[in-house]
Each structure stands twice: as structure tokens, then as C-alpha cells.
UniProtKB/TrEMBL annotation:
Reactions catalysed, as given in the entry: N(1)-(5-phospho-beta-D-ribosyl)glycinamide + (6R)-10-formyltetrahydrofolate = N(2)-formyl-N(1)-(5-phospho-beta-D-ribosyl)glycinamide + (6S)-5,6,7,8-tetrahydrofolate + H(+)
Keywords annotated in UniProt: Purine biosynthesis, Transferase
Coiled-coil positions: none
Molecular function per GO: phosphoribosylglycinamide formyltransferase activity
UniProt-recorded name of the protein: phosphoribosylglycinamide formyltransferase 1
Domain Formyl transferase N-terminal: 34-221
Length: 239
């Protein structure tokens, strides 16, 4: 099923969503929704969001603000980029220990506690390279977004560009979706296609897809925070 998207000027594939959409409130210019952005690396997508928020504020106001950027890796470029945009940036690394499951749970609990301390209302994953546990997803489900560099459900996982090139397809793209208990399996909100050129390698394809991601993700976040993502009969629509 395809529906018009209005301000996004594209079409959205509507998929079934069984869980309740739990955005706590609609963001406004006077009281923007408080976002946390989780990163693991360069933070180029996060920086695109910060620039979008700044430009939107100058143009009349933005209904969301990035309250904090959290990285699970120290000394990555994304932290410096956040600071350059006057956005608080923090590092919460995986704790030491021998039990990987316990370390994972403790790490996510530390992130969750910090998000609650800061009054975060929604979480934006932007190049965050850890798979979240079911418990963390359950706490934030309906308020947890991700962008993936392929046209899901095709080519999920951490090596989408490599898999696209190996498959020999002529079109890839990016997908904004709700995060669920699986890997890149959550309800799709919006997608945009990107052609695969004959001379592409992983780096060139990644850079072209990123350019599209950096435009699409902020626009979807606008719709999300303005309350224009609606659940009707188990489906997501953009009003």
C-alpha cells in the first residue's frame, strides 16, 4: 500500500505495526521534543540533523531539539561534531567484565538511566553500531528510530553496501524505521531509492546513500515529532 507524504514529497510503504505508538506528546516550537542521538562513529548523520534543527529554528522554529549525543565509543569524530554545534556530548562505553550478556545489559541500563535523567522523550539512532536488547527496545518502543542504508527488507545488517554490490542490483537506498526486537526488521516509515553505478565500490556507494539519508532522516523526524506519524489499524501513516 502506498500513501502520499505531503511535506516529504515522496511515497511511504505502509507496514503492519503491532505495538502501540507511545510518543509522550507532540513537540512544539515553544516546547520542542527532547531527543537523544546515539552514535558510534563520525556522526555525519547526527550533524545533518543538528544543522537541520538550527536552520528550521531560524526559519520559524523547530519542534524538536537534540538534548544530548551519546556515543558508545570514546574519541570518535561525532563527539567533536556535536560540541562544535553546542550540543552536549557524552560517552557511555561498554563496562569491563567477563560475561558479555551482563556487560551488554549493564551498558544499556546506564544509557537508559542517563536518558531518563535528561528527560529524553525519543531516541534517534544514527550510525549506532550495537544491536539493542529486547529489554531496552521494549522501554523505548514507538519512540526509537533508526535509518538503515538499504531498501529494507532487502540487505539488513552491518554490511549493506557490500551485500548490495555482491548481489549486483542496480538500485539501493535508505530506510527510516521504528526499531523492534529484530535486526533492521521494524516498521518502515519512509524509504528513498539511490541508483547503483557500474563503477561503484563500497565507499562511493556509501557516500551517495549518505547524502540522501541526511535529507530524509531529518524530514521524517519532523513528522514524527509533530505527531504526523499515526497508527491506524496496526499501520503507520504520515498525515
Amino acid at each position: 500500500m502506498l500513501i502520499g507524504v505531503g511535506r516529504l514529497q515522496q511515497y511511504v510503504v505502509v507496514h503492519h505495526m503491532s505495538d502501540t505508538f507511545r510518543l509522550p506528546r507532540v513537540g512544539t516550537v515553544d516546547e520542542p521534543l527532547r531527543l537523544a542521538v546515539l552514535i558510534s562513529g563520525s556522526g555525519s548523520g547526527m550533524e545533518a540533523l543538528l544543522r537541520h534543527q538550527a536552520a528550521t529554528r531560524l526559519a520559524g522554529g523547530c519542534c524538536h531539539q537534540t538534548t544530548v549525543v551519546i556515543s558508545n565509543v570514546a574519541d570518535v569524530k561525532g563527539l567533536a561534531r556535536a560540541i562544535e554545534h553546542d550540543t552536549p556530548a557524552e560517552v557511555i562505553v561498554l563496562p569491563a567484565g567477563d560475561n558479555s550478556s551482563e556487560r551488554r545489559v549493564a551498558h544499556e541500563q546506564a544509557i537508559h538511566v542517563r536518558l531518563c535523567e535528561l528527560g529524553i522523550e525519543a531516541v534517534i539512532l544514527s550510525g549506532y553500531m550495537r544491536i539493542l536488547t529486547n529489554d531496552f527496545v521494549r522501554k523505548w518502543q514507538g519512540r526509537l528510530l533508526n535509518i538503515h542504508p538499504s531498501l529494507l527488507p532487502d540487505f539488513p545488517g552491518a554490511h549493506a553496501h557490500r551485500d548490495v554490490l555482491e548481489a549486483g542490483v542496480d538500485t539501493t537506498g535508505c530506510t527510516v524505521h521504528f526499531v523492534d526486537m529484530g535486526v533492521d526488521s521494524g516498521t518502515i516509515i519512509a524509504q528513498r531509492a539511490v541508483p547503483v553505478e557500474p563503477e561503484d565500490d563500497e565507499n562511493s556507494l556509501s557516500e551517495r546513500v549518505k547524502q540522501v539519508e541526511h535529507r530524509l532522516y531529518p524530514m521524517v523526524i519532523d513528522a514524527f515529532c509533530e505527531g504526523r506519524l499515526q497508527i491506524s489499524n496496526g499501520q503507520v501513516e504520515i498525515a
